[in-house]
Design a protein that fits this description.
single chain, about 220 residues, alpha/beta, Rossmann fold, 5-stranded parallel beta sheet, 3-stranded antiparallel beta sheet, globular, binds zinc ion, AMP kinase activity, ATP binding, Adenylat/UMP-CMP_kin
Length: about 220
């Protein structure tokens, strides 16, 4: 089973990918992580990538393809969860080839769909206790006593600078721009399945499992 997992920041993609790793023995293949790992391990592709990066150049599609091939060869029977790849039609084509060369194929492209306004509310409402780190939310989880931490009685709270509306909307726009070139390709092949990323974590996992098991 090989899948592509798509979703904007805040949709819970990382959480779902690690659940699939724990429960199904699948392996998440994020190109950034793979690149760092290959460079560190000094694999043939890692050495090639290192030279390119040290020369201040961008790692080419050919190197990324080789990197994915190298990683897939280490997986044995484990299924792959592609994260952040492919981004272009050319990469989508390469991926088909890389998989086919290893007797694999792409089974599903699962997109965690979010409602942008609800996501803005979810993210911009978050704050934490400055002393103990207890998490709160303007709409969903205020302290029982105003301005007093339930856990430690502290009175100071903080918000992450990135948790603002403009950043959330910018990230959504970036996500749409990044997926726009590849979604139609996989739509045409009937591979795209959508899951409500705003549901609670367990429900999202159930929905993904249903797809993987052919129940949805
Ligand atoms: Zn506290």
């Amino acid at each position: 089973m090989n899948i592509i997992l798509l979703g904007p920041p805040g949709a819970g993609k990382g959480t779902q990918a690690s659940r699939l790793e724990n429960e199904r023995g699948m392996v998440q293949l994020s190109t950034g992580d793979m690149l760092r790992a290959a460079v560190k391990a000094g694999t043939p592709v890692g050495l090639q990538a290192k030279a390119v990066m040290e020369a201040g150049e961008l790692v080419s599609d050919a190197i990324v393809s080789a990197l994915i091939g190298e990683r897939l060869d280490q997986l044995g029977e484990a299924g792959a969860i592609f994260d952040g790849y492919p981004r272009t039609a050319a990469q989508a084509e390469s991926l088909d080839q890389i998989l086919a060369e290893r007797g694999r194929s792409l089974d599903h492209v699962i997109e965690l769909v979010v409602d942008e306004d609800a996501l803005v509310e979810r993210i911009t409402g978050r704050f934490t206790c400055a002393s103990c780190g207890q998490g709160y939310h303007d709409a969903f989880k205020l302290p029982a006593v105003a301005d007093t931490c339930d856990a430690c009685g502290g009175h100071e709270f903080k918000r992450r600078p990135d948790d603002n509306e403009e950043t959330v909307r910018t990230r959504m726009a970036e996500y749409r721009a990044k997926t726009a070139p590849i979604l139609p390709i996989y739509e045409a092949r009937g591979l795209v399945k959508r899951v409500d990323g705003m549901a609670d974590i367990a429900h999202v996992t159930d929905a993904i499992e249903a797809i993987l098991d052919g129940r949805a």
